[in-house]
Design brief:
By secondary structure, the chain is mainly α. Helix content is 48%, strand content 12%. The termini are far apart.
Length: 95
């Protein structure tokens, strides 16, 4: 007979293993962006929301459109919707 605790443990382990590559890809994208402009302060807070979207908050520099253009280069590759939240933008809207 199968032990319910073992089933739960296995399911959690599989979920964690499936999530690792996605998170790694997101963080690699951010590090790649940082390396192209070492003077910037982008992405002070990086996380993935409950829908699996990348969330970047707390930009100190904001040029409308730059993030949309940059992130769209990766959205097809990673097949995830990007969400960019800019808490420092005077317009108060997501980038």
């Amino acid at each position: 007979m199968v032990n319910p605790k073992q089933v739960v443990t296995i399911m959690v382990a599989i979920a964690v293993l499936l999530a690792i590559p996605v998170r790694a890809d997101y963080f690699n994208v951010i590090e790649s962006y940082r390396s192209t402009d070492p003077t910037n302060d982008y992405g002070q807070a990086i996380d993935i929301d409950s829908q699996g979207n990348l969330v970047l908050a707390g930009f100190n520099h904001h040029t409308p459109g730059d993030w949309d253009i940059y992130l769209s280069q990766y959205s097809d590759q990673l097949q995830h919707k990007w969400t960019v939240q800019d808490t420092a933008c005077p317009c108060g809207k997501p980038a």
